[in-house]
Design brief:
alpha+beta, four-stranded antiparallel sheet, 4 helices
Length: about 160
């Protein structure tokens, strides 16, 4: 499947929906933390015996585990559908830090437009092997040219999606 080379404008247009995705992920992460804390309390009371179905608090434990599983599945589905399914990628630590990379082309090669939750528009990019620490400001000239080359003619073997 050919990779999509996003223009800066296309990436900017996706930011509001990405903000919503991250809000939903944060709600699920908060739910996971709350349920994990409740499980920790039950484990302090019962230890390993909590997994025994005869223990009075086992059903509560099982319910909390199911809630965690539902939240993990919701996060997985959001990532697959709204991030990866749109041709975007998470760099290392992306889900925790609110980072998303948009593949694009620049000067005959693949690079990434780099967005961080809280930024209102795309202002940075980096080489595919540079990561967040290698972010560079997008110049006006780059803003006009990124994603407008022929991505089919560009080698994408180094573009890890």
């Amino acid at each position: 499947m050919p990779r999509k080379a996003f223009t800066v404008e296309e990436a900017d247009a996706m930011i509001p929906s990405l903000v919503e995705v991250f809000r939903g992920i944060e709600v699920e992460k908060r739910t996971i933390r709350e349920l994990a804390n409740k499980i920790d309390v039950l484990e302090l009371l019962w230890g390993n015996a909590l997994r025994d179905e005869d223990i009075p608090d086992h059903q509560e434990f099982a319910s909390h585990r199911e809630g965690i599983d539902r939240s993990l599945l919701a996060i997985q589905q959001a990532v697959e559908e709204h991030i990866l399914g749109r041709g975007l990628r998470f760099p290392m630590g992306g889900i925790e830090q609110g980072l998303v990379d948009f593949p694009t082309t620049y000067a005959g090669r693949w690079v990434f437009l780099c967005w961080k939750l809280g930024e209102r528009r795309l202002t940075h990019w980096h080489e595919v092997d540079a990561g967040f620490q290698g972010r560079r400001k997008i110049t006006d000239a780059q803003r006009r040219s990124m994603g407008r080359g022929d991505p089919g003619a560009i080698d994408d073997s180094g573009l890890d999606m």
